[in-house]
Amino acid sequence: MVIANATRDTRPMAFLDRDGVLNVDTGYPIHPHEIVWMKGCFEALKRLKDAGYRVVIVTNQSGVARGFFSEGDVQALHNWMNGEFTRSGGDISAFYYCPYLPDAPLEAYRQDHPDRKPNPGMIFRGLRDYPTDFAQSFLIGDKDSDLEAAAAAGIRGFKFAGGDLDQFVLQCLSSTHVSS
Length: 180
Fold this sequence. Notes:
The protein has about 180 residues and is α/β, with parallel strands linked by helices.
């Protein structure tokens, strides 16, 4: 459930939720034409890259468990998104997604999985997969469950209420800078 570009250099990590942070949450978007980018999204990703952050996407995708689309559809959308980000100067190290839901209509996906936020599983996976400067790492999400996952993983969480993502990232970077 990951698209990863693994490297072994230690850097801080910015975990970003997808729907409601990178793109407007329009209700289970799965095709490129359904994606409405959040204002400042591309600039924010470039800013994080330029600041030395590894960017990892952590997203609950219960549309799979509800039978709205397949895991292959999620992976295809993430591949397309990654191409858009790369073309605009951003860099995503990994996309982690959780297709599970405790009361899922599809039995194969009916569970409270450790990766499903507010559980911290996807964050822990990113921290295991990449050497990380933990003190400066953080998560940006739009829901309380995102912040709960960050707290459970022991990293800072910032709640994004919409608007200009680049300006929000600038504020997050200012508040997470740790002097050496």
